Amino acid sequence: MSVQEAAKYFHIGDKKLRKLIDENPDADFILWNGSRPQIKRRVFEQFVDEKLSAI
User: What's the pTM?
Assistant: First the structure.
């Protein structure tokens, strides 16, 4: 899903999600489509559950 779709789905801001992408460019939840990041929903859900206590 796109960054905008993921932000709506997870109820977080675009800027916060882009910050997470910038801080974790090689994370498993990111699929790079050229220079555009795409978010893998299930993997990002696990990342949020394990790594983040509050967004």
Answer: 0.82
Residues with Cβ within 8 Å of residue 6, at least 6 apart in sequence: 17, 39, 41, 44
Radius of gyration of the chain (CA): 10
Inter-residue contact 44 to 10 (CB < 8 Å): yes
Burial of 43 (0-12, 13-18, 19+ CB in 10 A): middle
The string of pLDDT tens digits covering residues 2-44 is 999 999 999 999 999 999 999 999 999 999 999 999 999 999 9
